[in-house]
């Protein structure tokens, strides 16, 4: 067991993939000489050379498209899109092609591509660099979307993703790279499509992913200091979603809160809230609380951005008000 | 150009072009009867491009196409009946009815697909070429696209990356002068001479007569041999014309009939036929025999398609994921 941060966990996963499989290569903007915009790929160019660590032009569409093409030819590309905001420039490749080639060819082709990208706000990067689009991708059949919030999950989910013959998007949160945690020395994997109960409780289920999974734990702590126990679920995979764990928990606690950093309107929290009311309606003692970011473009000023994003204090008071805690 | 073609090759070229023509005429009829639905984009008029270019490829080369993909699929050797069944949405189609006209694939022939988002195939074709280079394999990627695709960002991204990484990809532009209903002079700053944009990316480029199967063959042959001695992309712009509308839904009201008649006078199949007969390279009887056999093939394809079952409903969720 070692304690490392999430950035190191991903770096470890990339390195072992490159060592274990010569079909794996990494391609993206500034992944080589620069070491990655978030320093995740640092040192890989030196170790594996430019044939396997490829710096690309700033051309998101051809970065993903070339990944798809090489995957069709039997390679296992790991593609880095510097942030999920820029992935919109590659959306044609991701949504129209990667997600559909297997279906449209009736199984003739597979697209084993891992697309790593960085999501989320909170770093005062302004409206075009602070968005959370992982939920958008999660609505597309043919894609899988993983969202690790701990070093353990980042490495474990990545190992599973690299065995997948499907396109997988791994959204990493910009503010979680420094999160530290234990990672076993022994090989392990985290299955795609399995949520995890972080804290057990009986009074309310709080569901989140990435940074909002950490916020959910904060809320649970505050509630526990007030004598209520919350069950915290980190969903870890947005597609396929683990409805069993979510619904099972809500049936026990009879109350549910879903937190997402994306805008509330049309956000992924709505999807989970719907699943809960479809599958656990009779167990609910109150409405499913849906928390998202304020429906505004991310402002730059620190106080405004903080007011836009979900935060533990406000969520706690909403819970208390709604459920009469 | 003719001298190095033997009678067998001549009959093959004629056969393949005519197969595409008759296939497309027949699918057009099935569309009018309601057996084929959705969008149907016919390749009639452009046959010399697919046949002249793809005819030179080896099994290990890759072909990437666009939504007007029947001609490329047939030229690559996909079975007419399997394509026709796909067009009719049948279980026996190339994708079991899940792809449709614009999405034909045949993995066994390295026919990597019709891509129906204009320009979307270019980055993917670059990736196939990257894989060839990465794996140190033989072969090239032949990527077709139309004049409508060249104003997409993906076109420029693909040309640039292919050039800086020296990838073995033959960019094959079929310039039929219209992006759907809008003339290339209105949409492209360089007018009809689109190949010049490739030169600006350091890619060797040429414009050729796309109505002449021999000219297409010659240019492709030279390009492949150059790419194999000096790995780097090459760009060919074939000037061509579709004799039908953009799709079956298009009455072509934006085109002058005079223009159509002028291009029809250069019909790739008729002009090839006249040439090889006049040169005494093949007899009229032999060509007539080919025509008959093509008609039979098409009839069989239609019968096969229409007699095939529709896909099973329980296959709806199959192959979303591997």
Task: Give a quick summary of the entry.
The complex is a heterodimer of chains A (325) and B (322). Chain A has 325 residues and is an alpha/beta fold.
Walk me through this protein's architecture:
The complex is a heterodimer of chains A (325) and B (322). With 325 residues, chain A is α/β, with parallel strands linked by helices. In chain A, 37% of the residues lie in helices and 21% in strands. Chain A is built from 12 helices and 14 strands. Chain A has helices spanning 6-20, 44-48, 60-72, 91-98, 101-104, 134-138, 151-161, 211-225, 243-253, 268-280, 302-308, 312-323; strands spanning 2-5, 24-28, 53-55, 76-81, 114-119, 144-146, 168-173, 180-183, 196-199, 204-208, 230-234, 237-239, 256-263, 289-293. In chain A, helix 7 links the parallel strand 6 (144-146) and strand 7. Chain A is globular and about 60 Å long. The N and C termini of chain A lie far apart (40 Å). The mean pLDDT of chain A is 98. Chain B has 322 residues and is of the alpha/beta class. Chain B has a single domain (7-304), classed as Thiamin diphosphate (ThDP)-binding fold, Pyr/PP domains (Rossmann fold), CATH 3.40.50. A 6-stranded parallel beta sheet of chain B has the order 2-1-3-4-8-7, sandwiched between helices. A two-stranded antiparallel ribbon of chain B has the order 5-6. The radius of gyration of chain B is 19 Å and the shape is globular. The N and C termini of chain B lie far apart (47 Å).
